[in-house]
Structure to design on (235 residues):
């Protein structure tokens, strides 16, 4: 298995941060989990930057409030164990997706090569994408104590205004599909950023195909956090 784990290190009080990417098994995340208490809310800021945090542009522009901070201590380790297992299952069940463990959260990226994609200028969830999302829904049902953030992005072809609308429609289509297949709408938040958060070069066909993507962030909900604190004796 090849799970990408993002380790976040605090450099100084000036909030200079470095992100180190390593390839290793989700079951070998001990160092990543144990850093939770040191990083605090900075982990939420990094997660926002990774999935697109453009305050005032797109969606509600307030991902930080949705993402929250990192849970530290014994509770953080327990939550990390649960998220490791969920991340590993997602990668095994949906091998085309990019699965990233970021502190006590998971970010799943789907592009045109990884099972959730859209026809040009369209936003309906096609048959192939439905099959992939159904696998994800099954995992969401197995791990009910999480919240889910769906974020839509496009390439730069067309106007910025049209791309913003298209990313909104695609993100909402994915959210609605997940809800229609049995996941409570209270678990889901939807956001979108159009062409404003490219991860690849929009001047190439390959880069544009990577930028036409949907990110799904999976976060511990209040119940998971409370249960972990009780189990670790922190309450």
């Amino acid at each position: 298995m090849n799970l990408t784990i993002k380790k976040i290190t605090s450099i100084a009080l000036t909030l200079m941060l470095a992100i180190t990417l390593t390839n290793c098994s989700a079951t070998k995340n001990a160092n990543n989990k144990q850093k939770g208490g040191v990083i605090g809310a900075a982990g939420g800021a990094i997660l926002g930057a990774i999935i697109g945090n453009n305050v005032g542009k797109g969606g509600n522009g307030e991902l930080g409030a949705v993402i929250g901070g990192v849970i530290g201590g014994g509770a953080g380790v327990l939550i990390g164990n649960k998220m490791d297992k969920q991340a590993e299952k997602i990668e095994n069940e949906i091998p085309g997706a990019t699965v990233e463990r970021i502190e006590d959260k998971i970010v799943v990226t789907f592009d045109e090569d990884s099972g959730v994609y859209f026809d040009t200028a369209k936003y309906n969830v096609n048959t192939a994408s439905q099959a992939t999302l159904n696998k994800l829904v099954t995992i969401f049902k197995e791990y009910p104590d999480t919240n889910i953030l769906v974020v839509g992005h496009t390439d730069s072809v067309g106007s910025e205004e049209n791309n913003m609308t298209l990313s909104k429609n695609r993100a909402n289509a994915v959210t609605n599909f997940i809800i229609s297949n049995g996941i409570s709408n209270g678990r889901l938040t939807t956001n979108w950023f159009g062409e404003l958060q490219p991860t690849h070069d929009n001047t190439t066909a390959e880069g544009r195909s990577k930028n036409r993507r949907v990110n799904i962030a999976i976060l511990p909900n209040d119940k998971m956090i409370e249960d972990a604190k009780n189990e670790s004796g922190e309450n």
User: Anything to note?
Assistant: The beta strands are 3-10, 17-24, 98-102, 105-110, 146-152, 188-192, 214-220. The first strand starts at residue 3 and ends at 10. Residues 86 and 142 are 9 Å apart (CA to CA).
